[in-house]
């Protein structure tokens, strides 16, 4: 009896997320095809800066809410209080992110000659996107834990629609030095619309800004420290790893190479559908599930399905690379033989993230610090033996990094999976609260 509603929910979320990824993909591909390479290079760089700032504001905190809420997900004041306690720390870390990324932004901007009013306006707008995105993350986390899936889908639909309309309007106008600013403004407008709808939802559903009492705050802070502490160093490290190819090319490569790396990233957006559906439906279920064979079965089946879907996408990049490259336009046609490398790196890295999120929603974050050593050793060996001289070597660097992460995360998951299959009292956050 429960199977049909579950399948309906998966279909609904999957369709909305597919629409979101499709709209994002269409917008991204329009930008790649229409913007000149120099402007697209600057846009790719600003996106990387935004990603790094948001990552530093996280440092593992985003993985604390679900395991701490645990089986009390139906208690609205508790959910809001826990999320408020976690995100208050994220706002504090936002200042650290700005202080760290500011010098990198300045140095790379000077190195590539990016200056003038349009570039500065785009940078300021990207900063506005950072502030709006952090608020979006708070609101969406609260609604996700409260299982307000339809509301999340509706807001996502509005946001995606606003962005594609703005992008279309910008690209229909004559291309000038301000076109890149218009593209960033489209992202800011979409985030602003999301925040407004979230505020309206909180008012209509009477989701008040609840705060925990002193006793619960102390317990929650202790759990935040327990879960996030092992993730601080890996959090910083892997946020850099997430944009490592852009980072390397921005420092040592040309603007043309930077545009090519950014353009290739658009092709891997198809993988985001699976990631978003699992974020909404799978990981909350894993966080709530009691220890035992059922938990082990959910985890095993989810990862086998993930591998099958990733393998199917990778196969198309081997057999039909010319059709994938058509999406980017003629100015990137020379990169056709490298399409499979992009998908291989993205699929393996996404699978590593899938394993990590499976661990983190159960509060199993111990041992993550050692992954830094594994990844660094792999990268140093690669740079020593091969180096980074062209786009192909940069892509191989990404594949080597992804394989190192994959091996380590799945080794940790295998150990935990054996423990989770056993029937015994849970040792995660909700047991201590």
Overall helicity: over 70%
**Structural class designation:** mainly alpha
Biggest beta sheet summary? none
Q: For the terminal residues, how far apart are their CA atoms?
A: 33 Å
Categorize the overall geometry: globular
Write the element-wise H/E pattern from the N-terminal end onward.
Answer: HHHHHHHHHHHHHHHHHH
Unreliable parts: 426-432
Total beta-strand segments: 0
| Beta content | under 5%
Q: Compute the gyration radius: what is it? A: 21 Å
Mean pLDDT: 78
Number of helices: 18
Offer a concise description of the structure.
The chain has 18 helices and no strands.
Please provide a written account of the structure.
- The chain is built from 18 helices and no strands.
- With 433 residues, the protein is an all-alpha fold.
- α2 crosses α5, α13 (293-319) packs antiparallel against α15 and α16 (370-385) packs antiparallel against α17 (391-420).
- It is globular, with a radius of gyration of 21 Å.
- The chain starts with a helix and ends with a helix.
């Amino acid at each position: 009896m429960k199977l049909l509603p579950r399948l309906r929910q998966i279909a609904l979320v999957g369709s909305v997320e597919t629409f979101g990824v499709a709209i994002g993909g269409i917008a991204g591909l329009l930008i790649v095809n229409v913007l000149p390479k120099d402007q697209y290079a600057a846009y790719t760089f600003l996106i990387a800066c935004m990603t790094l700032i948001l990552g530093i504001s996280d440092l593992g905190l985003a993985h604390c809410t679900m395991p701490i809420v645990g089986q009390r997900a139906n208690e609205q004041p508790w959910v809001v209080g826990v999320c408020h306690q976690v995100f208050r720390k994220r706002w504090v870390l936002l200042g650290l992110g700005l202080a760290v990324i500011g010098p990198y932004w300045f140095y790379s901007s000077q190195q590539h000659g990016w200056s003038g009013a349009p570039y500065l306006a785009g940078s300021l707008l990207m900063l506005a996107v950072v502030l709006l995105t952090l608020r979006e993350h708070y609101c969406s986390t609260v609604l996700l834990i409260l299982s307000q899936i339809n509301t999340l889908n509706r807001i996502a639909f509005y946001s995606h629609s606003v962005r594609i309309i703005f992008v279309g309007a910008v690209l229909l106008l004559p291309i000038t030095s301000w076109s890149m600013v218009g593209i960033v403004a489209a992202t800011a407008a979409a985030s602003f619309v999301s925040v407004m709808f979230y505020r309206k939802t909180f008012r209509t559903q009477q989701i008040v800004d609840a705060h925990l009492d002193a006793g619960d705050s102390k317990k929650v802070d202790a759990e935040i420290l327990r879960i996030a502490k092992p993730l601080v160093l890996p959090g910083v490290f892997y946020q850099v790893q997430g944009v490592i190819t852009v980072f390397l090319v921005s420092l040592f490569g040309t603007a043309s190479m930077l545009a090519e790396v950014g353009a290739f990233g658009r092709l891997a957006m198809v993988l985001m559908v699976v990631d978003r559906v699992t974020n909404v439906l799978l990981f909350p279920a894993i966080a709530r599930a009691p220890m035992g064979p059922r938990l082990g079965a959910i985890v095993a089946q989810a990862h086998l399905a993930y591998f099958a879907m990733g393998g199917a996408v990778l196969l198309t990049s081997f057999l039909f690379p010319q059709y994938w490259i058509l999406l980017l336009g003629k100015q990137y046609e020379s990169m056709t033989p490298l399409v499979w490398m992009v998908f291989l790196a993205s699929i393996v890295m996404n699978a590593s993230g899938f394993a990590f999120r499976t661990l983190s929603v159960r509060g199993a974050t111990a041992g993550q610090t050692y992954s830094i050593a594994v990844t660094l050793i792999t990268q140093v060996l690669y740079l020593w033996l091969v180096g980074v001289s062209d786009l192909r070597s940069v892509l191989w660097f990404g594949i080597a990094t992804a394989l190192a992460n994959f091996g380590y995360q799945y080794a940790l998951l295998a150990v935990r999976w054996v423990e989770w299959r056993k029937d015994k009292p849970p040792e995660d956050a909700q047991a201590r609260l």
